[in-house]
Specification:
Layout (H helix, E strand, L loop, with lengths): L5 E3 L17 E2 L5 E2 L26 H7 L19 E3 L2 H41 L2 H7 L10 H6 L13 H5 L2 H9 L2 E3 L4 E3 L6 E8 L5 E8 L7 E7 L3 E8 L4 E2 L5 E2 L3 E4 L9 E3 L11 H11 L2 E3 L2 E3 L5
Parallel strand pairs: 5-15, 6-16
Antiparallel strand pairs: 1-4, 2-3, 5-7, 7-8, 8-9, 9-10, 10-13, 11-12, 13-14
Length: 319
């Protein structure tokens, strides 16, 4: 049996229901059509062709142009002309090599698809456990010292669950009391390093660590800027890694409070027990001199949050 390239010559098909060669078939050393589902047109296996041989186009564009019918809306070929094509078929050994590579890629794609599905199911399960069933909170209330999938730092920050009248506890209610939040907001904060940063440009964000004067509390200062509207800026401080204490929004859309009151921009979010940062108030004029000036507002925000030794941030082209 030769492994040389095979030329497909016009020949009658033995199957009465397939008078022409089927597009997408491959040919082995026996020089007869083999369907890509590994069976011949008459339903029998072809022992001469690779089981996973790739699909080959029947004929080349050059040959097709010899028989193409023009003049209608679409160019076309007559079925009786298709068997006249002569096609070079790769040797069986080469077919098997190509099929092996494509088969391995198919297997990898399928494996990746199953992995993605498994990760999505896992993410859904974690989300439901954390934010719907509040399982970490229940575990903490039962005396557990950790919870699977939850970082230890976040679990340690959870307080005992105080249920509302409907029996549902919100994460914002659990993490901090109002007195704790007020104490963190008023606490003197300072930079943790002498590293220097640039104020975010369009589409950029910055997150810098802070600490209390006695270094017992850790904070984060976040600043981000809109990609298109450069006056759309968000500044916020976080305590206990995840709790937004104060957030200032410049530009963007108005905010709607839980009581349905709409607060225009710019506005200030201050932590409120039971609601987290869901409540906003107009920017207090006694603390913010000129909210249309981004850099001046940033300096006022640092003072409002009692950041006495702020990180080194270069102003750049901020106005």
């Amino acid at each position: 049996m030769s492994d040389r390239p095979t030329t497909l010559e016009p020949q009658p098909d033995p199957h009465p229901l397939a008078p022409t060669l089927q597009r997408g078939s491959v040919v082995g050393p026996l020089q007869r059509p083999v369907s890509t589902d590994r069976t011949a047109p008459d339903g029998r296996r072809d022992a001469g062709a690779s089981p996973r041989a790739p699909t080959l186009e029947r004929g080349s564009q050059k040959q097709a142009r010899k028989y193409v019918n023009v003049g209608a809306v679409f160019d076309s070929l007559k079925c009786r002309d298709v068997p006249k094509f002569k096609v070079q078929i790769p040797p069986l050994q080469q077919q098997r090599a190509i099929a092996g590579i494509l088969g391995a890629l198919d297997d990898k794609i399928e494996q990746n698809r199953r992995t993605a599905q498994a990760l999505e199911r896992l993410a859904r399960a974690i989300f439901r456990a954390w934010f719907v069933d509040f399982e970490p909170v229940k575990a903490k209330a039962a005396g557990a010292t950790s919870f699977p999938s939850m970082p230890q730092l976040i679990f340690d920050a959870l307080q005992r669950c105080r249920k509302r009248s409907g029996g549902i506890a919100l994460m914002a209610e659990i993490i901090l009391t109002q007195s704790e939040a007020n104490a963190l907001i008023a606490m003197e904060k300072q930079r943790t390093s002498e590293a220097r940063s640039d104020f975010p440009r369009g589409g950029e964000a910055l997150s810098l660590p802070l600490e209390s004067a006695d270094r017992r509390e850790q904070f984060l200062l976040d600043v981000s800027r809109g990609r298109i509207d450069l006056r759309k800026v968000k500044m916020q401080t976080r305590g206990r890694q995840v709790v937004v204490l104060v957030r200032l929004d410049l530009g963007g859309a108005p905010h709607r409070n839980p009581d349905d009151e709409e607060v225009p921009v710019p506005h200030l979010h201050v932590y409120r027990e039971g609601y987290g940062d869901k409540w906003a108030i107009p920017v207090p004029a006694e603390h913010f001199r000129n909210s249309s000036d981004v850099w001046t507002t940033f300096e006022d925000f640092l003072r409002y949050c009692n950041i006495t030794r702020p990180p080194h941030i270069a102003r750049g082209l901020v106005t």
